[in-house]
Amino acid sequence: MKRAVLLSLMFVTVVFIAVSPRMLGQDESIGRDLYFLVKPLFGADLDLIQAQSDAGAGLKVWTYHAVSTRVGSKGQKFTGVMVGDNPLTTKGTTTTTMQIVPVIIKIAGNTFDPTKPSPCAAGKVPLTLMQQSPIVLAADFKMNGVALGKTQYSDAFQRANFWQSVSKNGGTYHNNLKVVTLKPITIDPGMAHSAILGKPKCGPFGGVEINWFDAMLTTKIIPTLKAQGVGPTTFPTFMFYNVAWYVGNTSNCCVGGYHGAFGNPVQTYSPFLFDLTGALGVNTEDTDIAAHEVDEWQDDPLGTNATPPWGHIGQVKKCQGNLEVGDPLTNKNFPSVKMPNGYTYHLQELAFYSWFFGPPSVGAGGKFSDNGTFTSTQGSCTL
């Protein structure tokens, strides 16, 4: 199956994933599959975007040039951009502001509010849990036997992703996020654009139609957030609590998160689900989805970074050709991280740059993913 299209601007193919049901009571799992989407920037001019970055008018990015060594695409050249400074040559720290916007959703008389105590987490507040997570705060990370230091998950991943160069340059490269929380926003989609998808034991699980939401997000919500500091140089994220997205109708469910880009200078953004119900099966808990989306944004901020075709793995049933580091390992987790608040967080494992473009690996431990699931790159991909 191919990935559903987000509006008329989305041309990258995406694939539904199937996940094994979690060990839950019959009334807890809603029997839906989890998958992820991307909304690429239409008509991206990488030279202009890099120039705007260098001038401080756009998101801080660096341009890479890759030559494939994979079977079936040897010698093919690819160019793209990633967030931050170049880890191949930089020894210092880049910091990008990431904003968390809590989204309160009203569906059929139910209110899904990430700022209120959750019965799904023994009364803990979802937003507070997010703010205290390794997406936001530093934790000790080791990937493939390499100690990456005390840092955020996205920075640890990027250091490990290009560890050959980072370590050669003294190991001082960092790509940090300065995370701030903005005022909550409230959305009432009405039953034409939302539904209750299931009723796990700790409370209902909702859904919102994604094309309706994305149109409102990009044309109305994001522009109004300019007064709170949102703009092309920042990365606004939108936190949904126990509410996912469906595409067109509820039979095309459930999207756990996506990242997108629009405008000139380009504005990047990402809505994500913070799930505490377990309704979508294994490896969807708390920051699993945020880890997927934040790191895909980091390595493919415009959604346009092309790669040799790959697939038949993770959530990808056929072949796709983009640098989406979460998709090949959807439903595969990095070891859980217990933070000082006593809560144990879940993080998705991620594919390294070298997995997409071919050996040898420039990543930590000579592996091709940050928890060593990929010990080699993929060969050619055919439908």
Summarize the structure.
The protein is α/β, with parallel strands linked by helices and 383 residues long.
- Note the overall shape: globular
Main beta sheet strand tally, sense and closure: 11 strands, mixed
Low-confidence stretches: 1-29
Give the beta-strand count.
Answer: 19
Q: Which structural category do the helix and sheet elements fall into?
A: alpha/beta
C-alpha end-to-end distance: 11 Å
Give me the Rg, rounded.
Answer: 19 Å
Relative helix content: 10-25%
SSE pattern, N- to C-terminal: EHEEEEHEEHHEEEEHEEEEHEEEEH
What does this entry look like structurally?
It is a single chain. This protein is an alpha/beta fold and 383 residues long. The protein has one domain (35-366). Helices cover 16% and strands 32% of the residues. It has seven helices and 19 strands. It has helices at 46-54, 126-131, 153-161, 163-168, 210-224, 288-299, 353-357; strands spanning 35-39, 61-67, 77-83, 93-107, 110-112, 139-143, 146-151, 174-181, 185-187, 194-198, 205-209, 235-241, 243-246, 253-262, 267-274, 306-313, 316-322, 333-338, 344-348. Strands 1, 4, 5, 8, 9, 10, 11, 12, 13, 14 and 15 form an eleven-stranded mixed beta sheet that branches. It has a two-stranded antiparallel sheet with strand order 2-3. It has a two-stranded antiparallel sheet with strand order 6-7. Strand 6 (139-143) and strand 7 (146-151) form a beta hairpin. Helix 3 (153-161) packs across helix 6 (288-299). The longest helix is centred in the middle third of the chain and has 15 residues, at 210-224. The protein is globular and about 55 Å long.
